[in-house]
């Protein structure tokens, strides 16, 4: 399996290269940023990309955006992204597209070499590898509906707002003052 690695930390990048070499993988390129990652993937056409989510220049989501771009341009290239923290938005962005050959692991997970190598093989073979903490965060998010926090009265006011009624119309219909309506709905309608 041919792999391209994108990690801005020299020590981590070189450590992953050595680990993969010893495990029998072929590292076609190891680069420090997303721009070089895209070039390396275009040049080497690897089976698998391992990319840090946050890379230069802004250290926000360059690696993730590159991973998504890779999946769009080369859908058969597997992508495993690594992140220091659980970042639901990033995981959702990556997983909302083609999930074949996709993984999202926390960097702590690569400390368990066998688990990391197993995840690489699984993703490289077209499967998925999701960090248990990422899955837990996504499940909590999916169960959490902001409307569940509203009282019955607030829901009724919101329903009337969605019908296009004015503050005065809602107040008259629900027999409340406009001042009560504002506090119940959390602001002006």
Structure, described:
50% of the residues lie in helices and 16% in strands. The chain has helices at residues 10-22, 34-44, 62-73, 88-95, 113-124, 132-143, 152-162, 167-174, 178-185, and strands spanning 2-6, 26-31, 48-52, 78-83, 102-106, 128-130. The protein has nine helices and six strands, in the order βαβαβαβαβαβαααα. The chain folds into two domains: 2-143, Response regulator (Rossmann fold, 3-Layer(aba) Sandwich), CATH 3.40.50; 146-185, no CATH class. Helix 2 runs parallel beside helix 3 (62-73). The chain has a six-stranded parallel β-sheet with strand order 2-1-3-4-5-6, with helices on both faces. It starts with a strand and ends with a helix. By secondary structure, it is an alpha/beta fold. The radius of gyration is 23 Å and the shape is elongated.
Identify the overall geometry.
elongated
Q: Give the tally of structural domains.
A: 2
The CATH homologous superfamily of the largest domain is termed Response regulator
Widest sheet: strand ordering: 2-1-3-4-5-6
How would you state the average pLDDT, rounded?
A: 84
Counting DSSP H or I runs of 4 or more residues, the number of helices is: 9
Q: Percent of residues in helical segments?
A: 40-55%
Rg result: 23 Å
Under CATH, the topology of the largest domain is which?
Rossmann fold
Number of strands: 6
What is the CATH first-level class name of the largest domain? Alpha Beta
Topology pattern, helix = H, strand = E: EHEHEHEHEHEHHHH
